[in-house]
Structures are given as C-alpha cells and as structure tokens.
Specification:
It is a single chain. The protein has helices at residues 9-32, 39-46, 50-56, 60-83, 90-105, 114-122, 128-153, 163-183, 186-204. The protein has 9 helices and no strands. It is an all-alpha fold.
Length: 214
C-alpha cells in the first residue's frame, strides 16, 4: 500500500468556505451589482465574520475579482458545457441560446444574470474589475464567433452571413431576455427571446430543417 499524507482538513474547509462566500457574492451581485456590496453585507449573507472575509481576500476589489471568476465557472458549467454536447455548427449555436435561457428561467440567480448586472455597472468604471469583465466579454464573443465560423465552414450558414452581426444578435437577444423579464412580463420575455433567436437562425441557415420548427 502506498503511504499518502493525510488530507488537509483545514484546507478543504477553507475551500468550502471560500466557495460559499463567492456563491453568495455572485447571487447578491446579480441583483445589487458588485460595487454596491459591502463586506458586512457579504459576511451576513454568507454566514461568516468580516474578519473571516479579510483572511480570504485582502480587500473588496480582490473579492470582486474572485467573484467574477466564480461566475465565469458557473456560466461555463451551466451554459457552455451543455451547449457543447450538441452537434457542431448551427445546432450548437441554438443549443447555446437554449442553455442560456434555461439558466435564466431556472432562477439559478435571483437577479437572473451576474454578467448582465456587472457589465451595465462597470462599463464606464475604469480599473481592474472592468478590465476583467471586458476580457471575459471578448472571450465569450470569440467563443461564439468560433462556433459561427465552424457552421460557415460546414456550409450550414449562407456564405454571406456576417459572423459579427450574428454573434451580436445572439448576445443581444440573451441580454434583452433578462432586462425585459425584470421589467415586463417574465414568461413572455423568455418565450420571445427563444422565438426570435430561432427565427434569425433559420433565416441564416442554408438548411433550416436542421433546426426545430418552433
């Protein structure tokens, strides 16, 4: 039998505590935004002391950056990975929008979407938090462009399709689903976002039969 060092229970507990705090921050920020959150509010929501927070993160900005990374991981697990199970190309684009709407309608976060909240909040605030949000927005855009180019290369999209325009439309319809669901009629907003995206993809598609009829 191979001798192994005992598991570090304190480290495991620390990791669980860190994850619990970050989940609380992501949840709160989807409603309040990151800038408005105080360390006291976060501590109360997560059930830890303020001193405990400062033992994990030196200041509020460091906590904000960590929360962004936690939200990125959550998005990857719940939206990106399920979509990648679909066949490459147009059907993967459709699956991406469906997974995004499932994340929203499943009420994973009380505000609907962490990134919609923080992008609106930090679009005009220079600094490390905005820089990271911008980098992730570019990463998402590049990911969507890659799927679109795969669809073009496979002949699934009409050859005059502009990848930038289609990527913009996909993102805009997802973004609008959140804002309209918070201000207008929730179920109608998500149903309209789904119908609009399907209609646009079918219009771009060289063989619309590979997509659902409705």
């Amino acid at each position: 039998m191979t001798n192994r060092p005992p598991a570090d229970g304190r480290r495991a507990r620390g990791d669980r505590s860190r994850t619990a705090v970050l989940d609380a921050v992501v949840s709160l920020a989807s409603v309040e935004g990151l800038g408005a959150l105080s360390m006291g509010q976060v501590a109360a929501e997560a059930g830890v002391s303020k001193s405990g927070l400062f033992s994990l993160w030196r200041d509020k900005e460091e906590l904000q950056l960590a929360a962004i990374e936690r939200a990125r991981l959550q998005w990857a697990e719940r939206v990106v990975q399920p979509a990648l199970q679909a066949p490459a190309g147009v059907r993967q684009l459709w699956a991406l929008h469906e997974a995004r709407l499932a994340f929203y309608t499943g009420r994973v976060l009380p505000g609907g979407c962490f990134f919609v909240a923080v992008q609106h909040e930090f679009d005009d605030r220079p600094g490390p938090v905005r820089d990271r949000i911008v980098n992730l927005a570019r990463e998402w855009d590049a990911f969507v462009h890659k799927i679109i180019r795969t669809a073009l290369d496979a002949g699934q999209l009409q050859q005059d399709t502009d990848p930038g325009v289609l990527a913009f439309e996909l993102d805009a319809l997802g973004y609008a689903a959140i804002t309209r669901s918070r201000l207008l009629e929730r179920d109608a907003a998500f149903a309209q976002s789904r119908a609009a995206m399907l209609w646009r993809l079918r219009a771009y598609c060289s063989d619309p039969s590979i997509l659902p009829a409705a």
